[in-house]
Amino acid sequence: MAGTTPSNGSPGVPGTPRVLRAMNDRAALDLLAAHGPLTRTRIGELTGLSKPTTSQLLSRLESAGLVRTTGRQSGRPGPNAVLYEIDPTVGHVAALSADPTGLTALVADITGREVGRFRIEADAIAEDVRHRTAQLVAEAVDGALAQAGLGHDDLRATVIGTPGAIDPHDGRLRYAPHLPGWHSRTLRAELAEVLGTPVTIENDVNLAAIAEQYEGAAQDHDDFVLAWLDEGVGAAIVLGGTLLRGATGGAGEIGYMPVPGAPLLRGPDGTPSSYRGGFESLVAGAVVRERAGGKPLPEALADAAVRDDLARHIATGIAAVVAVVDPELVVLSGQVAQAGGEALRLRVKEELTGLALPRPLLRISDLDGDPILTGALRTALTQARDTLFDTA
């Protein structure tokens, strides 16, 4: 990590000592965040810094309150080496997942350890709910903070996952007619005011893709598509390691995608109708259960006929996406994919043969817990660390 870096944007110009120190500080902090407690020697090995420079760095980070000692490493010849870790009390973040039936909030310290979680049940279309969205978010976060014994002043970032996407031009939530309370242009400002932290509202499927990229089936893949098959249907497209968002934030809204065998519904103004149509009308959870006579998803997809029918529809939709973006990998996620498991994956793979010329890898998500919350947490931690770990 030690070396030179441009101080004025010109290649080859040595960086200032302050810039170099800040770069080395950040490298060490990122290593501690990724690996947990490390000795001074190990930090030096991983960063390429000399022993004196590493010692100065750790002393500097201790004085700044970012790093603390946490016991000694045993089991090796010679004196036991001191272990260093990020001080988890430096800051905390909040991550939330919004859905048509409520809000789930979790609070974690800067190392990513969860310290509080709270769920509020609330019908998103109820009249008394749609006008108090910011208050409900605050109640959910307050509940998680209370469990952790923390207050708003302890939060450094908040990320909320919700169906639909925020239009970058006008700040409105698009593609989510079932969440009317989230459509206000001023919602982000209202949330920031009641929570006291910067607030990011992100598409839930995009967050699930971040979770897969960080600790799931898409690790080590820079080009992949996450197909979200749940009560709602969508996709996240990652190209070159970066999420593809589109001009209005709606890239990946494949639930509306016209496919053979699906009704094409339009609203009175020519926009996609809020009624189910397109790809979603063939593969959503409610549709699969209805096709199986109301059985729960695991039972429904244990039926080979139901599973084969679903696999054909999924393959048709995925083939359309693959033909356009040519990903290395397609990850199937959501309740429908989880219920179908490996048997469904194999049938989708078979059905894809011949439908699309590119042949991407096909995997089922194996993440534990809620991938939307996991992705929201990863995003919030990145934002908070960019601020807290900047020693320049």
Architecture overview:
The protein is an alpha/beta fold. Helices cover 39% and strands 20% of the residues. It is built from 13 helices and 15 strands. The strands form four sheets. The chain has a five-stranded mixed beta sheet. Strands 13-12-11-14-15 form a five-stranded mixed beta sheet, sandwiched between helices. A hairpin with a 7-residue loop joins β2 and β3. The longest helix has 22 residues. The N terminus is likely disordered.
The count of helical stretches stands at: 13
Give the overall silhouette: globular
- Topology as H/E string? HEHHEEEEEHHEEEHEHEEEHHHHEHEH
Class of secondary structure makeup: alpha/beta
Low-confidence stretches: 1-13
Quaternary structure of the protein:
single chain
Total DSSP E strands: 15
Layout of strands and helices, then pairs:
Layout: H1 17-35, E1 38-39, H2 40-47, H3 51-63, E2 67-73, E3 81-86, E4 92-99, E5 102-109, E6 114-121, H4 127-130, H5 133-148, E7 155-162, E8 165-166, E9 173-174, H6 187-195, E10 199-203, H7 204-215, E11 224-229, E12 233-239, E13 242-243, H8 280-283, H9 285-291, H10 297-300, H11 304-325, E14 329-333, H12 335-352, E15 361-364, H13 371-388
Parallel strand pairs: 4-7, 7-10, 11-14, 14-15
Antiparallel strand pairs: 1-3, 2-3, 4-5, 5-6, 8-9, 11-12, 12-13
Helix pairs in contact: 2-3, 5-6, 7-13, 11-12
What's a quick, concise take on this entry?
With 392 residues, this protein is of the alpha/beta class. 39% of the residues lie in helices and 20% in strands. The strands form four sheets. Strands 6-5-4-7-10 form a five-stranded mixed beta sheet.
